[in-house]
Amino acid sequence: MALSQIAAQGLVLLGCGKMGSAMLAGWLSEGLPASSVWVIEPHPSDWLRGTGVHLNQPLPDAPAIVLVAVKPQMMGDALPVLQALGNGETLFVSVAAGTAIATYEEVLGESTPIIRAMPNTPAAIGRGITALIGNTHAAEDHLSLAETLLAAVGQTVRLDHEGQMDAVTGVSGSGPAYVFHLIETLAAAGEAQGLPADLALQLARATVAGAGALAESAEESPAQLRVNVTSPNGTTQAALEVLMHEDEGFPNLLHRAVTAATERSKELSRG
Ligand SMILES: NC(=O)C1=CN([C@@H]2O[C@H](COP(=O)(O)OP(=O)(O)OC[C@H]3O[C@@H](n4cnc5c(N)ncnc54)[C@H](O)[C@@H]3O)[C@@H](O)[C@H]2O)C=CC1
Ligand SMILES: O=C(O)[C@@H]1CCC=N1
């Protein structure tokens, strides 16, 4: 099914905060007409008001997809509004972290096709990646419908089982924040070495963006790309000896960070 077919039946977005807006911005820029999108959002931003979507208006009877993008903690209040669309043709896709498929089935009915997805905010510029897993009522058609929608804002990957979702959340869902923090801290380190703040930020931002683009397009592995920068006994080697330190270096730090995010996702699922 193409984006135009989703447009014909309608798309409902429940919650349009940071992640909902990132995806909506991507869909609108890919040509999804604002007139085929219904958004339920108690605190709409000026940007959302300006998009021309149906905002807090009565919903269509059988939209192609309802996309749930409220915080896990708000789910109990938010989901019942959608109950009337359950057990029908409408596909539900939720991007909420740490909210198990069973939670949606309890409210929407067990025969509702439900897909749990984990996107990330680069979706706003069509560079996201979303992992997907469906319930037993999510047929191949439903998965490819969700992929059509999510592929409009980046890559998609299917998971083998729902248990993988916690680690996916720790790597790619939360991951952009780690990279933004890398930019912030690289710039701060440049400032500490005497660079003006705006120059340090420009250098850090361009370096992370350029290295990311190279890592994505190059045939060499990230490890080889790192070696290509590292002259024997040069400046990079001096830095990497700090970053690759067994206890205090990047590997241990990122391992702990991703473990913390994964464990938090599991905790949220337990309620
Ligand atoms: N921000 C991110 O990078 C990512 C977020 N997610 C998931 O997306 C979901 C939303 O996260 P954010 O956008 O970051 O949070 P957010 O707080 O920016 O957005 C949530 C939105 O839901 C609205 N809302 C609250 N109660 C509502 C209700 N009863 N009905 C409709 N809307 C309601 C809020 O006004 C708010 O605008 C979360 O479940 C999160 O786990 C998933 C992947 C990445
Ligand atoms: O921080 C969170 O809980 C959400 C899920 C992944 C990114 N943001």
Automatic annotation (TrEMBL):
Pathway: Amino-acid biosynthesis; L-proline biosynthesis; L-proline from L-glutamate 5-semialdehyde: step 1/1. Pfam families: F420_oxidored, P5CR_dimer. Catalyzes the reduction of 1-pyrroline-5-carboxylate (PCA) to L-proline. This is Pyrroline-5-carboxylate reductase. Residues 12-98 form the Pyrroline-5-carboxylate reductase catalytic N-terminal domain. Its EC number is 1.5.1.2. It is found in: Cytoplasm. It comes from Ruegeria spongiae. InterPro entries: 6-PGluconate_DH-like_C_sf, NAD(P)-bd_dom_sf, P5C_Rdtase_cat_N, P5CR_dimer, Pyrroline-COOH_reductase. GO terms for molecular function: pyrroline-5-carboxylate reductase activity. Keywords: Amino-acid biosynthesis, Cytoplasm, NADP, Oxidoreductase, Proline biosynthesis. Belongs to the pyrroline-5-carboxylate reductase family. Residues 162-268 form the Pyrroline-5-carboxylate reductase dimerisation domain. Its main location: cytoplasm.
